[in-house]
Write a structure and sequence with these properties.
The structure is a single chain. Helix content is about 10%, strand content about 20%. The protein contains four helices and 16 strands.
Length: about 300
């Protein structure tokens, strides 16, 4: 069976196969798939400037003793991957064949994956938008400590294990927008941006101290959910808070300000959006006395 698969694979890539060239500095990305280790080598720092023109991008793969050159033009690259998956439905695909790996970034957008693929350990950015991922687990990122940005916009995520992001101490941006979440997981401490808009999150799905220790968080997007109240203990670092189009019905004097401290000013906040909620902000004037700008919403 293995012999048959190897033969079919070679036949599939015959028009694209060239003998492996002698060692030289080729300003393109070369991935070496060995039996024991996976290594990524980049031979030119100006790769993006020279080759990201939408037409001439090429990714080279060593397979056996050959170099496989795959054009990233959509109609060729996607067709090649589709045929490969059809011929070998049970064969585990190398992540950087199914996705695109470039200088620490992994692009897995619109490739119909239903789970987070094994990532190169050097990965700093993962873009896995518009796929069919339903769950995130602690194992997905256990050995990828350098991640700084994760984008899972437009998947089918319903559940995230609490320990999923526990080892991602460098993670700065996390997008879970346009999924099926009912609650939020424990979030990593260095987040500067968190986006969970267009989900199904209710207030009981956010723990009281979910954001309290996120002292670097500047942008919080929770609009278009099912929240009945504004999340508690929002950090002082916040600049933008989007809560529009939820089910928020009330606000207290401590929601954004400090009821017992009339001299307190929350000067970092630039924008709070509350339109599309069943609440009249005009009935809660003391809730905004510490703000430099009034929230956007209905005051009638």
């Amino acid at each position: 069976m293995k012999t048959l698969q190897s033969t079919l694979l070679l036949l599939l890539f015959v028009p694209l196969i060239k003998p492996a060239p002698p060692t030289q500095q080729d300003p393109r990305i070369i991935y070496d798939y060995g039996t024991d280790n996976f290594e990524e080598s980049i031979f030119s720092q100006d790769y993006e400037d020279k080759y990201l023109d939408g037409k001439n991008i090429k990714v080279l793969y060593f397979y056996s003793k050959f170099t496989i050159i795959l054009p990233l033009e959509a109609k060729y690259f996607q067709t090649t991957v589709y045929i490969f998956l059809t011929l070998f439905p049970n064969l585990e695909m190398p992540t950087c064949l199914l996705c695109v790996c470039l200088s620490g970034s992994v692009y897995c957008e619109e490739v119909d994956i239903d789970a987070v693929p094994p990532l190169p350990k050097e990965s700093a950015y993962l873009y896995a938008r518009f796929n069919k991922i339903k769950k995130l687990t602690a194992k997905d990122f256990a050995d990828i400590p350098n991640l700084r940005r994760l984008d899972f916009t437009g998947n089918l995520i319903e559940d995230i294990e609490d320990g999923t992001f526990s080892k991602l101490t460098l993670l700065e941006e996390l997008s879970l927008a346009e999924n099926q979440l009912l609650k939020l997981p424990v979030l990593p401490p260095k987040l500067t941006l968190f986006n969970a808009k267009h989900n199904k999150i209710k207030s009981r799905g956010i723990k009281a101290n979910a954001f309290k220790k996120l002292n670097n968080l500047s942008f919080l997007y929770l609009d278009h959910n099912a929240l009945e109240s504004v999340p508690l203990n929002l950090p002082e670092s916040l600049r933008v808070i989007h809560l529009q189009f939820n089910s928020i019905t009330s606000i207290t004097d401590d929601t954004f300000c400090k009821a017992n401290d009339t001299s307190y000013i929350r000067d970092r906040i630039e924008e709070i959006r509350l339109e599309g909620n069943p609440i009249s902000l005009g009935k809660h004037p003391n809730s905004f006395i510490c703000l430099k700008r009034l929230p956007i919403g209905s005051y009638i």
